[in-house]
Design brief:
With about 60 residues, the chain is mostly helical. The protein contains two helices and no strands. Helix 1 packs across helix 2.
Length: about 60
Amino acid sequence: MDNKLTPEEQSKDRYFAQLSKIAEEMIDEHGKDFAMGALVMAAQWIAKNQIGPQEEIKH
């Protein structure tokens, strides 16, 4: 059986590794609750197509 990853699978693995690293950094610096909240918010932004530069909020 050939267990070689496809280029797409290799790319996805790289992204999972990057996510893992940033999650560990957020946990180390700000704790688990912050890291989970930030990742959930990112998922919500993706779901709502709100990824990308946002206009600066003026108060």
